[in-house]
Amino acid sequence: MSKTVRIGIVVGEASGDILGAGLMAALQRLYPGAVFEGIGGERMIAAGFDSFYPQDRLAVMGLVEPLKRLPELLRIRSHLIQHFSDNPPDVFIGIDSPDFNLTIEEKLKAQGIKTVHYVSPSVWAWRQKRIVKIARAVDLMLTLLPFEANFYEQHGVPVCFVGHPLADEIPLQPDQVAARQELGIPADAKVVALMPGSRGGEVKLLGPIFWQTAQWCLEQSDGLQFVVPAANAQRKLQIEEQLSHCDSLPLTVVDGQSHTVMAAADSVLMASGTTTLEAMLLKRPMVVAYKMGWLSYSIISRLVKSPYISLPNLLAEKMLVPEILQNDVTPASLGEAVMRYFHEPQHAQQLQRAFTDIHQQIRCNASERAASAVQALIESRS
C-alpha cells in the first residue's frame, strides 16, 4: 500500500500488552512503517507505539475502585473517541477490557471506522445479552479459543479463531526434569503443586482447605512433597501466616515461578481460573476447586450458562478433570481426586495425551493469524 497505515489500539491490562506487542510485530511485517497509537503498555511502547496515557490508568479491578476512578476513565474514553473520530485510523483494535473498549468500538464503527476486538469477553458463559452490543460494536472478533468462535458464529458476529499465544509459547513437551532441577526437587520425588489462587479472597477461602488436603494426602502416602507458588509478596505473607499452624507439612513456598512449579509437579490442586489453561498446556493432571461466599455463589450460579468452569473441560467439551465446587470442597474430596493420579498412573497418562491434542488445536501462531485477519479487514474497505 502506498499510504501509511494507521492503527489505533487500546489495551487496559498487562496481559493485553503482551498480546498487543505480538500483534504489532506481526502487523509491522505486513505494513512496514505503520503507525500505532492509542493506549498501550511497556512492550508496545518499546516497539514504537504512541501511548496517549499510561496503560495502568485503565487497569482497575473490583467494584469500588472503578467507581472511584469513573470520571477519569470517562474522560479518557471520550478523548479517545474524539481523537479517532477526527483522525480516522485504518482500523481500531480493542484488546480485552470489554467494558471500556466496546463503547469506543461502537462509536467508531457507527462512523464507518473498521473495528476489531481481540480476546472475547466470557459472553458465552454469562451476561449473554452483551452479544447484542458486541454485534453493534465490532466488525471482527478475534478469539483465543475455538468454542468462543462457535458462539459468535451462532449469533452472526464476524469472528476469527486465532489460537492462544500461551500455546505458542509453551512447548508441547515441557521439561519436568529441568523444572525440578531449577527448584531443587529430587527427580524421583512425588510432587503436588498447591495453587489456591492469586487473589487474597481466594487464598482466604481455599488456602486452609488446601493445606488440610495436603495433610490428608500425606496420610495416604507419606512420601509426598508439596510446592506452593505465591503470586506476589502479599500472597506469600498470607500463605505463610496460614501455614504457621502446619509446621509438619513437607511444603515449600516459592516466589512466583508458577509455570516452573507446575512443570515440576506430578499433579496440581488449583483454584479455577486462567491458570487451569497453563496447567493443561504444561500437561499437568489437575484437580480444580472453587469456593466463594454463599450469597455470591447463589447469584452467580444462576447467571452462569456454561456446564463447566475450567478451561480444559470447556475446550474438551466434557469433564476431563475434576471440578469440585462450594460445599463439596473438603480435604477428603480434594484429596481423593489428587491421589487418583498417583494410584492410577494410566489415568494421568490418558489425560496428558488429551491435553497434548488440545494444545495442538490452539497452537496456531496466534499473533500472525490475528494480523492476517486484521489485514483482510483493512483491505476489504471499499
Automatic annotation (TrEMBL):
Q: Which is a Gene Ontology cellular component entry for this protein?
A: membrane
Q: Quote the SUPFAM superfamilies the UniProt record gives.
A: UDP-Glycosyltransferase/glycogen phosphorylase
Q: Name one GO molecular function term.
A: lipid-A-disaccharide synthase activity
- Domain of life (superkingdom): Bacteria
Q: Which Pfam families match?
A: LpxB
Pathway-wise, it operates in: Bacterial outer membrane biogenesis; LPS lipid A biosynthesis
Gene3D superfamilies, per this entry? Glycogen Phosphorylase B
**Catalytically driven reaction(s):** a lipid X + a UDP-2-N,3-O-bis[(3R)-3-hydroxyacyl]-alpha-D-glucosamine = a lipid A disaccharide + UDP + H(+)
- This protein's UniProt keywords: Glycosyltransferase, Lipid A biosynthesis, Lipid biosynthesis, Lipid metabolism, Transferase
| Annotated GO biological process | lipid A biosynthetic process
Instruction: Report the EC code(s) recorded for this entry.
Output: 2.4.1.182
User: How would you classify this enzyme at the top EC level?
Assistant: transferase
Q: Could you tell me which NCBIfam families the record lists for this protein? A: lpxB
| Similarity annotation | Belongs to the LpxB family.
Functional summary from the UniProt entry: Condensation of UDP-2,3-diacylglucosamine and 2,3-diacylglucosamine-1-phosphate to form lipid A disaccharide, a precursor of lipid A, a phosphorylated glycolipid that anchors the lipopolysaccharide to the outer membrane of the cell.
Protein's name according to its UniProt entry: Lipid-A-disaccharide synthase
